[in-house]
Amino acid sequence: MPAEIDIFQYVIFAVLALLIFFMFRNSRKNKQRQEELKKEIVPGADVMTNFGLFGTLISVDEVSNVAELEVSPGNIVRVHRQTIAKVVTTDGESDSDEPRSVEEAMERANREYEAKEAADVAATEPEFGERVETVEAADVDTTVVPEKKTARRPSKKASE
User: Fold this and answer.
1) What are the residue ranges spanned by the domains of the chain?
2) DSSP secondary structure of the chain
3) Of 3, 6, 36, 67, which has the highest C-beta tally within 10 A?
4) Higher pLDDT, residue 42 or 139
């Protein structure tokens, strides 16, 4: 009995050690991510806050932890420095596949419609090596044959 308790204790200590290892690793990653963000936060950068406000960073006061964002021309918002979630990059590549304008959405819809039409036409044509049988009117048998009705067998329960 004492041997089972020792094995159980070893398992608990191993799980606890793994938990502590992952906690330290996670905190190290978060600290590294914060340092990278701190390097990217410079005046003139386009940023997004935790609550979804986009703007251009005007200034950051490290002592009072206040950042000033220009959300539109002439409108400056003061926020806490730690509410800046990320620096928004506009290098021409968008993260999502969403259209950026109505014209682009219409162009995509037209391309998809044309591709669908071409696929429908291609679907009606036989593929290479596919056998196509044509049915002529003389080959079709139009006589109707009535089905034979089979007699039902009485069930065993009914005969008993």
Assistant:
1) 1-39
2) -HHHHHHHHHHHHHHHHHHHHHHHHHHHHHHHHHHHHHHH--TT-EEEETTS-EEEEEEEETTTTEEEEEEETTEEEEEEGGGEEEE---SS--SS---SSHHHHHHHHHHHHHHHHHHHHHHHSPPTT-------GGG------PPPPPPPPPPHHHH-
3) 67
4) 42
